[in-house]
Design a protein that fits this description.
The protein is mostly helical. It contains 16 helices and nine strands. The protein has a single domain, classed as Glycosyltransferase (Alpha/alpha barrel). The strands form four sheets. It has a three-stranded antiparallel sheet, covered by helices on one side. Helix 2 packs parallel to helix 16, helix 5 crosses helix 11 and helix 15 packs across helix 16. The longest helix is centred in the N-terminal third of the chain and has 24 residues. The mean pLDDT is 96. The structure holds alpha-D-glucopyranose (GLC).
Length: 420
């Protein structure tokens, strides 16, 4: 274990550039990614608090005037990544993508603040960070939920962070592919194409992006006009948790945001409407096509992390979580293996992801502690046997995707070094 702790630290430091950290040291993801950086900051907080805060500050330096924090910041423009900064054609001083990713910064920051004493200088830095996070959350509330339903939409599958999940299959099928679309993917040259999204899906990703670009990413316009608009239960669970954590941080610093505390109340009430009593499961909503989406994705269980105060639902969810892929040596597969969309090796359609396990293990700590510990133990075993990879197969934990993967290293540090 000692040895692996050192390797985790080295992985993060090896992937570190000027004030930010790449998701991996190969060419697959040559930029700063939003939620990766949050996980990475948590990892740094176990051995270098300044690096942790810097990681977050650099990410927030890319915040747009309207409050949005992009999903990618292209600090280095000289890479082969597609879609690169010119394909997005947006950003401020720092080139960026025009969409966002799960807003987990406040959740991570709270964990960091709970376990560290911070200096006066760091307190100043943290206050700046917090103010920017408030603007980010208020941006979500204002522009991604214009009707104030308590649930925010994502306007591109990539905003979810689980880019290629079958949750998006139905809404994606309805997306008309732009005529004469021309672009060159790089990802499927670097990783076995059988493990990456299909070309037809990529055509749709790019068409959705181009449509947003046409509207100049104007947040008022794109809510209605985007070719993709989904209220996802996993994403909303992370946002609910992030709002709750933000309020706790604000209390610490005698700050307030009534917009956010009111929003939490509406979300807590309305997220329950996504629960199907008969199926005993949460579903997501395709807003654009007015359809319910039922896909047994592990991300639906992020609701346990959001700490809904509803014992009955929590119990039912835990019961079905225990059946999610109970016949396999490792868990959790991103999609329930008996579902038609399940694929053993294609990313987000079956393999195990450390960050998903981490949300669920944390969420279960105060609901089923022994199960939570089991998840933690199994996740640690999987990493210790195979190293820090992007994802793993459910049967043998075969390492897949990028190696030296930052968030797997960072979350390993939290799994083995936090005191719970
Ligand atoms: C992939 C993942 C996304 C992640 C990014 C960088 O696109 O789907 O969640 O942020 O890689 O690691």
């Amino acid at each position: 274990m000692r040895n692996l702790i050192n390797r985790a630290q080295k992985t993060l430091l090896g992937n570190r550039r000027k004030g930010y950290t790449l998701p991996t040291n190969n060419k697959l993801y040559p930029a700063q990614w939003n939620w990766d950086s949050a996980f990475i900051a948590l990892g740094y907080s176990y051995f270098n608090l300044n690096h942790a805060l810097k990681e977050i500050t650099t990410l927030l330096d890319g915040q747009w005037k309207d409050g949005m924090v992009p999903h990618i910041l292209f600090h280095d423009t000289n890479t082969n990544y597609y879609p690169n900064y010119t394909a997005w054609n947006c950003g401020n001083k720092i080139h960026s993508s025009g969409i966002t990713q799960p807003p987990i910064l406040s959740t991570i920051l709270k964990l960091i603040l709970d376990k560290n004493k911070i200096s006066n200088k760091q307190t100043k830095e943290v206050k700046k960070i917090v103010k920017k996070i408030i603007r980010f959350h208020e941006w979500f509330i204002k522009f991604r939920d214009p009707k104030k339903t308590g649930l925010v939409s994502i306007l591109h599958p990539w905003e979810s962070g689980y880019d290629n999940s079958p949750i998006w299959d139905e809404p994606m099928e309805k997306v008309t592919i732009e005529k004469n679309l021309k672009y060159k993917r790089a990802d499927n040259k670097l990783v076995n194409p059988d493990h990456r999204p299909l070309n037809i899906d990529y055509d749709r990703y790019v068409s959705i992006k181009n449509n947003l670009r046409k509207k100049k990413y104007n947040p008022k316009k794109i809510f209605k006009s985007s070719l993709f608009n989904v209220v996802d239960v996993g994403f909303n669970s992370l946002f609910l948790k992030a709002n709750k954590d933000l309020i706790q941080i604000l209390n610490k610093f005698n700050l307030k945001s009534s917009k956010i505390s009111n929003y939490i109340k509406i979300t807590e009430k309305n997220i329950l409407k996504l629960y199907d009593k008969k199926k005993e499961a949460f579903y997501s909503k395709d807003i654009r096509n007015k359809k319910k989406i039922y896909v047994p994705s592990i991300t639906n269980y992020f609701i346990l992390f959001a700490d809904l105060n509803n014992d009955l639902i929590n119990k039912k969810l835990i019961k079905s979580l225990k059946n999610h892929n109970k016949n396999d040596k490792y868990f959790f597969s991103s999609i329930k293996p008996n579902h038609k969309s399940f694929e053993e090796k294609r990313y987000w359609r079956g393999p195990i992801w450390v960050n998903c396990n981490w949300f669920i293990y944390k969420g279960l700590m105060n609901k089923d502690n022994s199960f939570s510990k089991k998840i933690k133990r199994k996740t640690i075993q999987m990493i210790e046997a195979n190293g820090f990879h992007e994802y793993y197969t459910r049967k043998s934990a075969k390492p897949m995707g990028a190696k030296n993967f930052s968030w797997s290293a960072a979350l390993y540090l939290d799994l083995v070094l936090n005191k719970n």
